Amino acid sequence: MQKPKAVGPQAGARKYDILSALMAFALSQDKIVQRRVMRIMALITARYNWQRDELCVGQREIARMWSVDERTVKREMAVLRGLGWLVQKRKGARGRLSVYGLDLERMMEDTRPAWPLIGPDFVERVGGRPEAPESNVVPLRGPVPMAGEGVWATAQARLHAEDPVTYGAWFHGLSEVEAGQGRLVLAAPSAFHATYVRTHFLTRLTSLARRIDPTLGEVRIEH
């Protein structure tokens, strides 16, 4: 993946790519995540200094922008720091405001599962994949799973065969943590990824895993 620095040549296009990824990701999530992403997008578009990588704005101003109270601002900023999207560069003291930076690369990585929702051209551009040598049209295909034994290896092969795009976006990044004693535990690369898979694909994964191993009782997605 190209590093999403939004300065220098083609900076404008990179800014749109980052905001597009955030928007597509938000629209694929529940209302809580949607609101949170909209809030960080509001700060980015209204107050973020791209050149200096600085976000310097007081809680009262943020509360007004978000139409919430300052307690909500404090809580949400803490969550965004926990996600790694906001990075505190200087803590406010003696009347000075805290200064934050943005980890744009982390944002792009966390929103990666939503890239195919924008389109294969977007995945091609921000994913840094080379063009096909004999065609200007690059089909979006999920990565081929590694051959192996066990419930999850078999499930990966079937998921890829059924839908390579969905496999590449959501299932390829899952790794087996535990298998046996009636359960299969998979780890997701991010908290957002884990939440999305639980919400939209857990029933499908559980059904497929039980067809492969009828003794299986539970499929769990962790981060």
From TrEMBL:
Record InterPro entries: DnaA_N_dom, DnaA_N_sf, WH_DNA-bd_sf
Cited SUPFAM superfamilies: Winged helix' DNA-binding domain
Domain of life: Bacteria
Domain DnaA N-terminal: 151-210
Alphabetical list of Pfam families matching this protein: DnaA_N (PF11638)
Entry protein name: DnaA N-terminal domain-containing protein
The species this protein was found in: Pseudooceanicola nanhaiensis
